[in-house]
């Protein structure tokens, strides 16, 4: 037998081609018995089903939602927050039958995912503002939701209250009596170590957390050096710069739980006690913070709620909603662990 088509199956069963098509695409149009007969014959003949591309064209839907990262694909699986976020979107979209396609921001190859992949909509996660991939998605007039991103006029966005979370972190150390503080943050630039202008090459999340830390620090009449590490790569040089500060800080607020864990490891390797000699606060509320030794005081964000909110907003747009753009800002909370305490008396 040659290539098996819908018509081949229709001839074998004795029904119309449209009836066979309905067995795959519109099962509610057939009786259970007839549909099972058609599917059984299709399996017997080795027919895998209608061509996905043709079905997408016929329905006018790709059946997939893109999630755009500035980072590499591996980031979506290696970073606990990113993985949790993508998982929450997938769980929310599963009942709709939509799949997720991970997109990188690369636009240098002949095939540009943001431009060339069939998509019903896109979630832009923690992307840099000047990403050319964002421009392609906007030009395609796709439904778009910005997440952990600077909000754009006319588009839905989901963020956490990064500024308030950072303020809570710094205020926690101040309330414990710490006066010698330092800030450990990340940047999309290459500068490592103590920086004079931490806002120079940063992302909106880093920017908001910097503002929050200094809301509390300056509000208490204090100052704090800012030590910066690249977003990806070794933190050892930056941690060395923190421990070499003179006077050495007694309390450090960190961009993430990963950064906080690295600081704690570096401090312990240098013979310091945490929290006796150095108190450390992270950000994100990850399992790493809970299971680290000592457990890390952190700012908890609800990653699952962020993913659900993004999927809900995108689903509304894909369904044709023309409502005004929504800006969702989710709350955060301080979770006190064992990495912070009052400073030792000098």
List the keywords.
346 residues, alpha/beta, 6-stranded parallel beta sheet, 5-stranded mixed beta sheet, 14 helices, 13 strands
- Total DSSP E strands: 13
- Helix percentage: 40-55%
How much is the radius of gyration in Å?
Answer: 26 Å
Largest sheet: 6 strands, parallel
Strand order across the largest sheet? 2-1-3-4-5-12
- Class from secondary-structure proportions: alpha/beta
Beta-strand share of residues: 15-25%
- Spans of 5+ residues with little confidence (pLDDT < 50)? none
| Number of discrete helical segments | 14
- Write down the secondary-structure element order: HHHHEHHEHEHEEHEEHEHEHEHEHEE
Give the overall shape, derived from the CA principal axes. Answer: elongated
Average of per-residue pLDDT values: 89
Distance between the termini: 88 Å
Word description of this protein:
- By secondary structure, this protein is of the alpha/beta class.
- The chain is 41% helix and 17% strand.
- The chain is built from 14 helices and 13 strands.
- It has helices spanning 6-13, 17-25, 32-45, 52-59, 73-78, 80-93, 113-116, 132-139, 162-175, 204-219, 236-243, 257-269, 287-291, 303-318; strands at 64-69, 99-104, 121-125, 144-147, 156-160, 181-187, 193-195, 226-230, 251-254, 279-281, 298-301, 327-330, 332-335.
- Strands 2-1-3-4-5-12 form a six-stranded parallel beta sheet, sandwiched between helices. A five-stranded mixed beta sheet has the order 7-8-6-9-10, sandwiched between helices. Strands 11-13 form a two-stranded antiparallel ribbon.
- Helix 12 (257-269) links the parallel strand 9 and strand 10.
- Helix 1 packs across helix 2 and helix 11 (236-243) crosses helix 12.
- The protein is elongated, with a radius of gyration of 26 Å.
- The mean pLDDT is 89.
């Amino acid at each position: 037998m040659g290539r098996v088509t819908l018509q081949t199956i229709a001839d074998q069963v004795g029904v119309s081609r449209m009836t066979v098509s309905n067995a795959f695409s519109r099962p509610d149009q057939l009786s259970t018995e007839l549909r099972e007969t058609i599917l059984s014959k299709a399996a017997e003949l080795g027919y895998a089903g209608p061509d996905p591309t043709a079905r997408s064209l016929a329905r006018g839907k790709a059946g997939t939602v893109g999630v755009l990262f500035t980072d590499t694909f591996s980031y979506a699986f290696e970073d606990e927050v990113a993985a949790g976020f993508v998982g929450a979107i997938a769980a929310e979209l599963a009942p709709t039958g939509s799949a997720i396609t991970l997109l990188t921001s690369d636009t240098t190859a002949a095939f540009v995912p943001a431009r060339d992949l069939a998509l019903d909509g896109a979630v832009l996660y923690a992307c840099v503002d000047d990403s050319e991939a964002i421009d392609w998605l906007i030009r395609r007039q796709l439904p778009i939701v910005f997440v952990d991103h600077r909000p754009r006029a006319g588009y839905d966005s989901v963020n956490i209250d990064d500024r308030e979370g950072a303020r809570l972190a710094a205020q926690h150390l101040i309330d414990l009596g710490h006066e010698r503080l330092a800030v450990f943050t990340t940047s999309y630039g290459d500068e490592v170590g103590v920086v004079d202008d931490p806002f120079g090459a940063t992302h909106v999340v880093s920017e908001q957390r910097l503002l929050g830390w200094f809301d509390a620090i300056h509000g208490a009449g204090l100052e704090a050096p800012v030590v910066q590490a690249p977003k990806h790569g070794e933190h050892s040089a930056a941690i060395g710069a923190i421990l070499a500060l003179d006077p050495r800080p007694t309390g450090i607020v960190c961009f993430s739980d990963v950064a906080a864990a690295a600081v704690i490891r570096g401090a312990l390797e240098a013979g310091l006690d945490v929290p006796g000699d150095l108190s450390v606060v992270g950000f994100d509320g990850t399992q790493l913070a809970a299971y680290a030794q000592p457990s890390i005081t952190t700012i908890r964000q609800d990653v699952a709620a962020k993913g659900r909110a993004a999927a809900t907003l995108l689903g509304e747009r894909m369904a044709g909603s023309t409502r005004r753009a929504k800006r969702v800002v989710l709350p955060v909370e301080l979770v006190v662990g064992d990495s912070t305490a009052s400073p030792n008396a000098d």
